Amino acid sequence: MPDLTMRKITFYITFIFAIAFNTTLTYGQSTIHKPGEIETLIVKSKVLLQKDVDSALVYIEKATKLSKLIVNDTLLAKSHLQKSSILIFKKEFSEADSLLQYNLTKILPKHIKGQTLHNLGTIQYYKQDYKKALNLYLKAAKVLEQTKSPQQLVNTYSNIASINASLKNFKNAQTYLERALALNDYTEIVRLQILVNLCSVYYNQKLFKKYTNTIFEAEKLAKKYNSIAILSTIYNNLSMYYAEEGANYERAVTYGKKAISLKKKINKTNTLNVTYNNVGHSYLKKREYSKAIKYLDSAVPLSHGLLKSYVYNNLKASYLGLKQYKTALHYATLKDHIKDSITNEQQREKVTEITEKYESEKKQQQINILDTENKLQTLTIKQQHYLLIALAIFGFLIGVLGYFGFKNYKTQQQLDKVLLQQKLRKTQLNPHFLFNALQSIQNFIHQNDKKKSNTYLASYSKLIRLILEKSDDNFTSVEDDKIAIASYLNLQQLNYNNKFSYTVDVDNAVDEDFDMLPTLITQPFVENAILHGLKENNEGHIHVNYYKENNALHVSITDNGKGFEIKDDDSKRLHKSMSMNIIKEQLKNLNKSSKSFNGSININTLPEGTKVVLSFVST
User: Fold this and answer.
1) More confident call, 352 vs 609
2) What is the pLDDT of residue 175?
């Protein structure tokens, strides 16, 4: 019997977006009572923040004025921190940012600087600029790690983990949550929040032993503090775990009913649909079909979209178990209708998004080309102008000193020109490939081939994301390069009607996250293998392998085509989108600009195939 279950697990995500808090007493240079008075005002403001925001603002305004009067930078910075916390709470980000930026212009204790960076990160998080927020939180953590402020460090680590979890970087999220848990200056309530968040991270990485140990510890703390909302989430997740991974449907039902009871108690009925479906699914697995239908019927009115299709599918299976085929068919039809609607909507959204990205990228590339051409023209004019000046000066200089100065000037100008020409060539590459790829995806959609169009869209989205994010960088990680190559081969495999097969392997010695290679350098060789190496081969195979030898990173691209004759002056064997000369020029400039990097290309061709080995050494 086919079965479609609700695999998305929900968690009580309360990553601690705490705003900087500090109570360290720092006395100023004026009378003794005034610094103490300022500290008291700051503390009163913090106490009132969650109860009466306006009163909290009044107290901190007084503290700010007094700090300015006694000219105490430390107390003024602490006042700015608290005021920024209030402004962030009120979502007045611009003024909060201005206060925090002022803090950074002063020489302050490290714990205050760390808290300032933390609050700046929180502003960017609320603005949904997660990249900037993460960068600021990491800077804050680096500063706070040098201080004795573990409480604030717990908050910063938790926020770093939150952003990584939202970006599906669960390994990084785990690292920072475990670091937060290892600190000891926090309450058990904060520990409970960290444990619940760790459960989410462990589950998504399928670390089920750690997951169960952590969630049961969280359950004890939630019971101790009567945290009903968190406890209801814990029971809901345990129900999901035992229904899906634990395969203990009796426990799944027990925990699901506990979750339902607690959610009703706190009037948290908007999330009951997931729990009802969990319990109904568990009864279905126990073959207690009537009980399953009871809970699934309760889930239907509250469910929408994908969840509703899961509920309908479980209802279909339950009625099939009762041999009520007409009703089962009814729910199967409803499920298929919702699924088709979701699929069509997703396809429309993806095509629209890709088209918009293509148009935007095309316009940007045109701007970049014009900008680069203008720079080249300006550079040429400047070279001529400087040359005249240099020749005039050269006449007054004596001997070797003037000669070598002029030669150094010419060399630097030549290098600038080469770098700009390389950038021009790169900007001309992207629109051509994007246009061809977009044309292919439109053909699949017009043919109403949903399976291929979905596969094509997934690979295309990955490839486009990596190109847009990495094209401006000189280097990329093995992991990103592997994803780009696999996505590219998948697209080409569909284009060529599976005329060839491929494998992409990474040896254990390679650290996918930290081993680096030049951006977009492997794709032209893979493209060449497809267009030339497998041109007349209906059973072609391409093998891409990342490996290490003698601390050098190697990438081999092997095909079983008929091979070709290599000539020293043959620069047109690669597809015109990226000639061998341009790749060699790219490596040459990287070797010059990065003294610790050296890259090379080796091509071996035989009648039974061609093997290209790219080698990169970092010292």
Assistant:
1) 609
2) 93
Residues 6+ positions from 113 with CB-CB distance below 8 Å: 103, 104, 143
How many Cβ atoms from other residues are within 10 Å of residue 566's Cβ?
11
Proportion of the chain above pLDDT 90, given as a percent: 22
The answer to whether 123 and 93 are in contact (CB under 8 A) is yes
Question: Which tens digits make up the pLDDT trace of 316-351?
Answer: 999 998 999 898 899 888 888 887 777 656 656 665
CA dist 222 → 208, 252, 331 (Å): 20, 19, 39
Q: Is the pTM of this model over 0.70?
A: no
C-alpha to C-alpha distance for 152 and 170, rounded to whole angstroms:
22
Say how many residues make up the chain. 619
Give the whole-angstrom CA distance, residue 346 versus residue 335.
16
* Amino acid at position 182, single letter: A
Look-up of token digits 């997951």: 211
Q: Quickly list DSSP for 36-101.
A: HHHHHHHHHHHHHTTT-HHHHHHHHHHHHHHHHHTT-HHHHHHHHHHHHHHHHHTT-HHHHHHHHH
Distance CA 243, CA 8 (A): 12
Classify 498 in phi/psi space as left (phi over 0), alpha (psi -120 to 50) or beta: left
